[in-house]
Amino acid sequence: xxxxxxxxxxxxxxxxxxxxxxxxxxxxxxxxxxxxxxxxxxxxxxxxxxxxxxxxxxxxxxxxxxxxxxxxxxxxxxxxxxxxxxxxxxxxxxxxxxxxxxxxxxxxxxxxxxxxxxxxxxxxxxxxxxxxxxxxxxxxxxxxxxxxxxxxxxxxxxxxxxxxxxxxxxxxxxxxxxxxxxxxxxxxxxxxxxxxxxxxx
Length: 201
Fold this sequence. Notes:
By secondary structure, the chain is α+β, with helices and mostly antiparallel strands. The chain is globular. It has helices spanning 2-27, 95-116, 187-193; strands at 35-36, 42-47, 60-66, 81-87, 128-135, 138-147, 153-166, 171-179, 195-196. Residues 10-27 have low confidence and may be disordered. It has 3 helices and 9 strands, in the order H-E-E-E-E-H-E-E-E-E-H-E.
């Protein structure tokens, strides 16, 4: 009986080790971040399919720049960041599709956060979002989500999403600007100043 238990534990350890190695390799790629921001804005690049949101069926990359106080819940720029999807598929966004994407993205992110925090059975409240379309390529709205990483509670983000096409690369761009701060807060000037280091004309 003891031998069987030890064998099961060994298999579990091996599976966990392989999983950690896979996660590390996916999260620590060598892709250069195309987003230009101040040096104190943390940088990260992820590849699709996203580990935490595999239901988002795109091929490409997510480039992220985090404001300096992104992970500090008492900071004025808490949870303020920009990320850019560079994808092969035309996202053909409308408000309904965008809301589904946002909800899937943050539900996956926060549930993954619970697992990494060893809260395997924690029930994370569902993300809800509401957007309106300003013009063909621009959406604004709000996102209510559970912050599993820092606040351990519900937060509401203001959001601006824009789309574009990079003819030089033959790829579609989806820009996400997010912050709990109101749109007249100075952080929004900093968010919208983040840009690409390459032209897409």
